[in-house]
Task: structure prediction
Amino acid sequence: MTRKKSKDSVSENLTEDQVIVKEAKERFKRAMEWESDFRKLFIEDVKFGMADPDNQWAWPDAIRRNREIDDKPCLTINKAKQHCLQIVNDNRQHSPQIKIHPVGDGADLESAKILDGVVRHIEYRSAAQGAYNTAQEFSVFGGIGFWRVITEYISDDSFDQDIRISRVRDPMSVLLDPDIKEVDGSDANFAFVFSDLTKEEYKYKYGDKAAEKATDYVLDMNFGWNTPDHIRVAEYFRINLSKGMIAAVSSDDIEAIPGATTNVFKQWELDTDTWDVIVNLPNTKTRQVDRREIQYFKIAGEEIIERTIIPCDYIPIIRVVGEEMVIEGKLERKGHIRSIKDAQRMYNYWTSSAVEHVALQNKVPYIGPTKAFEGNENYWSAANTDNLAYLPYNHTDEAGNPIPRPERQQPPQTSQAYMQGMQVAANEMMMVTGQYQAVMGQQSNETSGIAIQNRQRQGDNATYHYIDHLSSAIRFTGRILVSMIPRVYDTPRILRILGEDGVEDFVHVDPMAQQALQKQQMQQQEEIKHILNPKIGTYDVAVDTGPAYSTRRQEAFAAMTQIMGKNGELMKAAGDLMFKAADFPMAQDIAERLNRMVPPQLKGEGPDPQVQALQQQLQQAQLANQKLMEAMDKYKTERESGMLRANADAYRAETDRAVAMHNAEMDRKQFIHDVATSMLQMQNQQNAGAVQGGQDASIISQQAPNQVMTQPPQQQIPNQQPNQ
Result:
């Protein structure tokens, strides 16, 4: 970790470049001393794991030379390599996948999904799987492997850059900070990457003068950067710390800062006026932090020929370790080979000795007296090559004495001790690795599938730390990419993204967008435009260690084939999905044709059948309810109409009765009036001559109508009879 220039450096009157080169030399020497013992063993282990009959790397030099002098065989039956490849190839089939999860500050699941696609496309463009596999092989064989994350211009006529994952072919060309504590090396404060350039290549890149200066200085040969024919270039990474201020603004004051997408601001990313506005807000909190800056220098000899700032929070060099411990202050790092070496040497020795033993045995098939073969040499010399019907021999000599017949000898046989020694060596390999016959694909005592899987799981448990370390390294790669993407893709552009199923899409990057992800409907098109602002949001990285997508697709096709073979209706409904998972020519064409036959509801293009059934039931219930309400309204109307008619009839009857009574009363009154009038007329006629009588009659004629209307007839005519 580097801070600002110290007083000691200034007192030496060194230039800034000289200070950096001096620091690089000191750190390089300290790191090499820390790893010197491991590096020797690393080379031996890797060579041992890659041994074959031609290079003879599995045999110690002294033993091999002695056996060659005595013309003894030195056979190499490399079983150790198969134990290592079992781990490597299993990891290739279940390579960990980077998964990005939103944490906050405007990030959401949709933006994390888009970032997943960006990361997958970076891996695809970089052939990252090759970088992962190379590092993993070295970690299993030798104990450590590396890959890098770099940036490069997208073309010679552009200033836009892309991110690429770069393969490291030789792990010994990388040197990390010896004080790291994390397995993935994410806490490293410095690192070196060495590359040897020919003098012609160096002159072409950096000029003749730079080449002359680079070759003038030669460091100690134990740590030499230069060789007679090459110029070793060191890429030096270091973390430079400087003091900086950050500010946190309350949610009430965030509107005072135009274009703000977060409430935490870094002083070194803002202009002075904006920072003054932020710190003068009433509820702003500030504190001092260490500002991390990843500095990069390319050094040749004592000259810095390139320098830049890496747009990342970490040194972008990722390591994959096999087994690593610090014991009594010394580094102990190794891979899978280290523990197999003795057992493999035993196996090679027993095999070579068994061959030697058989080679020294007598190979003559028949033994007998010379006299027995005289005259029949042609027969006996062809006995091993021709199918002769018989082999004649001389059974007596000239004196008639019997001659013993030739006897067939036992063929050469190997010693049981050698065979047992080979078996012991093979068993010891399995014991020290935890990888037994079922793990290696050989037939064993386990017969059921569950028993074989359990034995394979035991082997996986014994070597799972290699998978776990690879997962940690890939997770760290995801953290580096999440850190670099907002800084590298800092201009509007269109990026390709890659789905988990390998389907490509596009996303529009706009660092000025107000949200982490926006969706915009394209005019006159059905396409939806995704706009990503990678500067908004905080994300975390996890890894998925399950099978790769291609493996899961094959498993899905096998499972669907088995299921749909027993259910024809399911084949009609989901056959297109089965052929989508297939991986043979024209499978996608079959899937498209079957897709046209699937009802829209099953494809999600129409309503769900259950929802549709519920909707139909609801419509039927609403219709029945409507009919019931209409019936009730009709009944109510009819009831009200009946009551009105009944009331009207009653009222009419009452009215008719009242009218009839009135008419009857009027008729009765008229009748009484007429009778009274007639009686008065008769009385007047009888008393026409009497005056008093005439006056009374006049009075009666005037009062009679009123009396008739107001008084009962009995009072008006007391003497009137009922029959009258």
Remarks:
- DSSP finds 21 helices and 19 strands in the chain.
